[in-house]
Amino acid sequence: xxxxxxxxxxxxxxxxxxxxxxxxxxxxxxxxxxxxxxxxxxxxxxxxxxxxxxxxxxxxxxxxxxxxxxxxxxxxxxxxxxxxxxxxxxxxxxxxxxxxxxxxxxxxxxxxxxxxxxxxxxxxxxxxxxxxxxxxxxxxxxxxxxxxxxxxxxxxxxxxxxxxxxxxxxxxxxxxxxxxxxxxxxxxxxxxxxxxxxxxxxxxxxxxxxxxxxxxxxxxxxxxxxxxxxxxxxxxxxxxxxxxxxxxxxxxxxxxxxxxxxxxxxxxxxxxxxxxxxxxxxxxxxxxxxxxxxxxxxxxxxxxxxxxxxxxxxxxxxxxxxxxxxxxxxxxxxxxxxxxxxxxxxxxxxxxxxxxxxxxxxxxxxxxxxxxxxxxxxxxxxxxxxxxxxxxxxxxxxxxxxxxxxxxxxxxxxxxxxxxxxxxxxxxxxxxxxxxxxxxxxxxxxxxxxxxxxxxxxxxxxxxxxxxxxxxxxxxxxxxxxxxxxxxxxxxxxxxxxxxxxxxxxxxxxx
Length: 511
Ligand code: HEM
Description:
Helix content is 48%, strand content 7%. The protein is an alpha+beta fold. One of its GO terms (biological process) is xenobiotic metabolic process. It comes from Thrips palmi.
């Protein structure tokens, strides 16, 4: 009976290859990924072979549907029936076996916790002055760390230097403090998170589909890695939450943890049962770490790498900054309105905002996102049974030749309108769409803009003499990153022919 059940395809399920009992399509898919170089390429090849935008697979014991193309993806993202998250071993392990937090939950728990996080970020000055100050403080620190290398014309690797800055912004918003650069605990966390980003794929790797394999190969399946990461994060978060409990003052909100403790205590004093608990708080903080840090720093890394590869665009961006930011200060969020508008032809103004949007789309459009069907439903006319995992293939939209014509070309001006302002395009789905869209998008965009413009204002980025230019091919994984590359930073004040930029700028008013 089990065999028949494992082999049978639900009625009117999306088309796809035949599957084996127990393993489903795992082996074929793995073979195809190895042949084509990435999971999204394998999905796209299977979609073509079966003439469908909605591919039906079985991975281990899970029914899995891959939605590709704008119509199918938007149908998933905007349907309440697909507001669920997959509930497999990998997802449970991500939240230390609890299925708590925001990212991996659904139903009433998810909606109450998400509402809290959105409301809190808004109150805390999300997108306003406080957030900007935190980002600028980190930027200032990063620039001073890079200054000596620039003065001595020593090539540096930006990859390891960006994540601590982004993580510190998140940590300051969440826990009210920052880690000093080089802090060994921060470094250990970043190393583990970076390994995690590379070790898994959209479906959670083998741990998502054949979790029992962890008993045979705990190291190779990534199980030990996740356990180590969980232990480090849990220790740090529980310690921080305990310190907040000890210094708690009613009515004072220093950060997200304080705001959360207000909710916990308010519900406790009313004697009502609630989803606001200390355990849940650990998982909400964990979500901020895992969903926000490497996604943002890798994107920034891609954007800067593209500047190394496109010196002409870099110098247009620099002119944009030079013409719009007064001497003696770092770029600010209000400058965003001015950028790009000052030059003549649209191709002459690939403004800084356009460049970050461009790098997001051209290279970084593979943020894994998985949903689950909360009830029996349909997708593109096919039946989708309750519990089916739905993987969103945004790559297929962002690399659609029919729409973008030359999706692999880095043309930031394509994201700008005739006035040089960012042109919203409904086909840019980097941050998702609908009720579950990314709740950190404003923070991510602000970080990208300020770090990007701040770096270009201070340094010219180029390929170190005698070294090969960076590769545009990303390292595959859960959160894709550029392959390691080195860059020569030349202080703008020392660039022949460049307009001069003042040094020793003070980013914070009064600092
Ligand atoms: C460039 C950076 C980022 C990208 C590309 C990105 C992208 C995404 C995507 C595609 C989703 C899935 C949406 C869906 O399922 O439909 C998501 C969810 C999420 N993101 Fe981001 N994100 C970024 C930065 C951040 C930051 C900085 C934070 C932290 C504040 C954050 C917090 C979250 C959370 C908590 C969710 C889960 C939302 C939910 O399930 O309701 N993200 N993000």
